[in-house]
Amino acid sequence: MPASRRLFVLLLFTCLGAFANAGPLRIVTDPWAPYVFVENGQARGLDYDASVEVFKRLGVEVHWDFMPWKRCLIEMENGQADAVLDIFMTEERRPRLHFADEPLSSAEFVLFYDRARPYPFNRLTDLQGLKVGTSPGYWYSDSDFRTSELFTREPAPSHEANLGKLVRDRVDLVVNDRRAGL
User: Fold this and answer.
1) Choosing a second label site near 92 at 20 to 30 A (CA), which of 8, 73, 138, 160?
2) Cβ-count burial of 168 within 10 angstroms (0-12 exposed, 13-18 middle, 19+ buried)?
3) Which residues form the signal peptide (predicted)?
């Protein structure tokens, strides 16, 4: 997989009139520490904190909803959310969504393995026959990785569940952002 990919904040500001609307801007996101997460009932994280400060300075009221990633995407598609925090810009999404010009942060996707069961890999063929934990609805930047039939993709409902599968030897590797996985 490439060394890094950029995360983008999706801000669906189709016109300034949206700010005059009586309701707050509704932003959905998937908990993904350290970028955005809930701790002791309080939302926080690198990207969350930066976004909150920007909206505060703009005088924009925001309502945040945390949910699984696939549900975030569905709510955007159905017009039930105004924006998604930390979504990758892809050619498929570009016609339907507006992306900020500048990324909020960057991500480096890596493959995690259990130290007791290391799987050294340098190329895609090294993954042959292995089970790789993935996150449903996530877009992995390397098209060869996304389409390869050399290995089995094993989806999990959360990043924590993926890492739990790794510890319990239910998957051989887990793909995740380096910071989030650590």
Assistant:
1) 160
2) exposed
3) 1-22
Whole-angstrom Cα distance, residue 156 to residue 178?
A: 18
d(CA 148, CA 161): 23
Task: Supply φ then ψ for residue 48, to 5 degrees.
Answer: -60, -50
pLDDT tens digits, residue range 16-63? 344 445 589 999 999 989 999 999 999 999 999 999 999 999 999 999
Q: For 73-85, write each residue's pLDDT tens digit.
A: 999 989 999 999 9
Residue 115, Cβ density class (10 Å: 0-12 exposed, 13-18 middle, ≥19 buried): exposed
pLDDT mean over 108-137: 92
What is d(CA 97, CA 158) in angstroms, rounded to the nearest whole number?
Answer: 24
Which stretch of DSSP H or E encloses residue 165?
A: helix 159-167
Q: Which long-range contacts (CB under 8 A, 24 or more apart) does 48-52 make?
A: 48/85, 50/104, 51/9, 51/27, 51/85, 51/104
pLDDT-derived band at 124 (thresholds 50, 70, 90) equals very high
pTM, 2 dp: 0.73
